[in-house]
Amino acid sequence: MLRPALALVLLALIAGCTDKEPPAPPQVAYQPPPLPEPPPAPWCARPGEVTAFSVAALKSNLMVTAISCRAEDKYNAFVNRYRPSLLQQEKTAETYFSRNDKRRWQQSRDDYITQLANAQSQRAMVLGSQFCERSLGQFDEVMALQKPEELPRFAETKTQSLPQAMKFAECPATAAPAPAPAKAVAAAKKKKK
Fold this sequence. Notes:
Keywords: Signal
Strand content: under 5%
Largest sheet: none
Number of helices: 8
Signal peptide: 1-20
Organism: Rhodovastum atsumiense
Protein name: DUF1311 domain-containing protein
């Protein structure tokens, strides 16, 4: 007699379980892996050059975003608005290469730009379908700057979240030249007269 009662209880439990949906798994936001550490740059960079490379990383990231997310119009608006600042920063980056690699500076610069675009593209592949969702907002952020002159500082705030082709170490500050001895200054003044 116990068996039919037990079977009824089990049947009721099973029937009760099928009516209820299992609880949904907790939603966990996707956390991309940390950015890989780029290789060290072959030469130290002056503070203005470090800033120029931050701008280059931002520009490259926006370019990859535009291509990957079909936002070419946003990229074109960015370039048109910031053209003078972008050109100035590119010249500063060129001085880094021309100062350190006099014979092959153009090739070194082109290699850097290619490596930078590759690093940006690899990040897009890691993020997959979330890349556009996470990256398109950068266009709104950069276009919201009050003045184009704010672009370099803005780019510097993004350096931790943007892939870079090389890790740039700042050059040590150079010592100020020693003051000329008074006799040398007086002799120089006499020569001018």
